[in-house]
Amino acid sequence: MGPDMRVGGEAYTASWRSRTLTIAGGLMVGGFLLNVILTAALHPSGEEDDHAEIFTKYADSGSWIAVHLGQFIAVLVTLSGLLVLYRVLRGTNGSSLLAQLAAATAVATAAIWAVLQGLDGVGLKQAVDSWVSASGAEKTIRFANAETVRWLEWGLQSYFRILLGLTLALFGTAILTSRRVAGWLGWTALVGGVCSVIVGVDVGYSGLASGLQDVLGIAIFALVLLFAVGVLVTGVREHNRHDR
């Protein structure tokens, strides 16, 4: 193979890598921000474990099902960004297996997210609406039914957080091993993933509200956003550098 062919191949590889990183970062940033906007602007908030109060807010929400469908799509878009990032990491000897495991856990995370949103976005809404519209002895039964759905949501939320954390941690470790992306991005994903696993375990014990979750939730928000933006910026910078 002559020098010109090698140079052309290297240029194509660099261009493909920069495009792939840009797409991965764009998907992660876009999905993450869409989920944040939908949750902050339209999702009812309050004391999550005060069921009488929070169920009333849920029942009053006319956009509940649409908001959860939007959240469902947003998180899937974010996870698809990780799967695109996998394409950059998969060919490296030291990180190939780790990257494959990371991609597999991302798919598993998407699956449990779908079940969680179906239960929360549709099942819980129907349960709380039935409770609000009931009267007499039936109201007590309907409230108990809604609490059962809520507790199922706790379980799925716990395992979703754990799987999401494992996904981030595996991607972070694959980045550190492959050295194809800046090491600080790997550490960001790894630390964010560990925090998510801790939150997932805490949800199983404490429910959807605790002081630990408040603190780590802020850390996870910052770390995941930093990771997503970092991947996007890396792709854009590499693209601009190779175009000069």
Contiguous runs where pLDDT drops below 50 for at least 5 residues: 1-8
How would you characterize the largest beta sheet?
A: none
Report the total helices: 7
Rg, Å, rounded: 21 Å
Number of domains in the coordinates? 1
Annotation, overall tally of beta strands: 0
Structural class: mainly alpha
Beta-strand percent range: under 5%
Binned, the helix content reads over 70%
Q: How do the helices and strands follow one another from N- to C-terminus? A: HHHHHHH
Tags for this entry?
7 helices, disordered N terminus, mainly alpha, 244 residues
Topology, element by element:
Layout lengths: L2 H40 L8 H10 L3 H26 L6 H38 L3 H42 L4 H24 L4 H33 L1
Describe this structure in words.
With 244 residues, the protein is mainly α. It has one domain (3-243). It has 7 helices and no strands. It has helices at 3-42, 51-60, 64-89, 96-133, 137-178, 183-206, 211-243. Helix 1 runs antiparallel to helix 3, helix 3 runs antiparallel to helix 4 and helix 5 (137-178) runs antiparallel to helix 6 (183-206). The protein is elongated. Residues 1-8 have low confidence and may be disordered.
